[in-house]
Amino acid sequence: MRTEPVLVLVYDGDRGFCTASVNLAERRLRPRCAITPWQFTDLDALGVTQRRAEHEALWVTPTGAVHGGAQAVAKLLLSAGRGWAVPGALLTLPPLRWLAHGAYRLIANNRTRMPGATPACALPHHHRPPT
């Protein structure tokens, strides 16, 4: 039995805001990819480090190309097709790409303060209680 390589979105499953965002994306966008928290993913097989996975969402292609942060969101939107592909494509173009990067970093750096965050989210990963 041969398995086809798949697109993968990797996110931080310990972050309430990240998990809520991914759940919303799955319901609304119905992207054509596997979505998995990095905590339950073979990161070595995907060619990414834990440090990077803790820092940003990652979009990993079957060829091993990795897109992080706002570009991972853009790729997610593109994979959803329909009307979602338009904003996804726009997010890949300067100057929207640069603005999206800044907005992503602002949100990611403050995700412990976002809706759905728990006190455990503010702790470094190795100090968080098991989920």
Please explain how this structure is put together.
With 131 residues, this protein is of the alpha+beta class. The protein has six helices and four strands. It has helices spanning 16-28, 43-46, 50-55, 70-80, 85-90, 96-109; strands spanning 8-11, 34-37, 58-60, 66-68. The protein has a four-stranded mixed sheet with strand order 2-1-3-4. Strand 3 and strand 4 form a beta hairpin. The chain is globular and about 30 Å long.
Kindly summarize this structure in a few lines.
This protein has 131 residues and is of the alpha+beta class. It is built from six helices and four strands; from the N terminus they run E-H-E-H-H-E-E-H-H-H.
Q: Based on DSSP secondary structure assignment, what is the total number of beta strands? A: 4
Total number of helices: 6
Radius of gyration: 15 Å
Percent helix, as a range, is 40-55%
Residue fraction in strands: 5-15%
- Unreliable stretches (pLDDT < 50, length at least 5) are 127-131
Order of helices and strands: EHEHHEEHHH
Tell me the span between the first and last alpha carbons.
Answer: 33 Å
Mean pLDDT: 87
Strand order of the biggest β-sheet:
2-1-3-4
Give the overall form.
globular
Largest sheet: 4 strands, mixed
Question: Structural class per helix/strand content?
Answer: alpha+beta
Quickly list its features.
single chain, 131 residues, alpha+beta, four-stranded mixed β-sheet, 6 helices, 4 strands, 41% helix, disordered C terminus
List the helices and strands and how they pair.
Elements: E1 8-11, H1 16-28, E2 34-37, H2 43-46, H3 50-55, E3 58-60, E4 66-68, H4 70-80, H5 85-90, H6 96-109
Parallel strand pairs: 1-2
Antiparallel strand pairs: 1-3, 3-4
